[in-house]
Automatic annotation (TrEMBL):
The lineage of its organism: Bacteria, Bacillati, Actinomycetota, Actinomycetes, Propionibacteriales. It comes from the Bacteria. Pfam families: Glyoxalase. This is VOC family protein. Residues 1-118 form the VOC domain.
């Protein structure tokens, strides 16, 4: 089965691209028309809301999507997101009962990005 890249629907792909690189520290994997950002195994695709119907086959508003991404160095990523004040207040870095470390950040449109990593004990 082919692996799919998680999608964030955004209002302004260039503004969101800046968020991905400057705030999250991701690198541009491929640019227009298929904006994909990554770091290690992390991959996320940006789709402008105006093009969502064409690219995703359904109309989706910006700020209504959520993705879950595995992060290799979750502590460092959490610190970076805290510095930029994008961590959701009630979703700070925490250990779950499933033995993962997780936190959730929010992009400029209000999309949620849940980062997780297997806890090292």
């Amino acid at each position: 089965m082919a692996e799919r890249t998680p999608v964030l629907v955004v209002s302004d792909v260039e503004k969101s691209a800046e968020f991905c690189t400057e705030v999250l520290g991701l690198e541009l994997v491929s640019g227009a028309p298929e904006w994909v950002f990554g770091l290690g195994e992390i991959r996320v695709r940006l789709v402008e809301a105006a093009r969502a119907d064409l690219e995703l086959g359904q109309s989706v508003e910006a700020g209504t999507t959520m993705v879950r991404l595995e992060a290799a160095n979750i502590g460092l990523l959490h610190e970076r997101c805290q510095l930029h004040k994008v961590v959701v207040k009630k979703m700070q870095l925490r250990r779950t009962r499933w033995n993962t470390d997780e936190f959730t950040a929010e992009d400029p449109d209000g999309n949620r990005i849940n980062f997780w990593s297997v806890s090292v004990t």
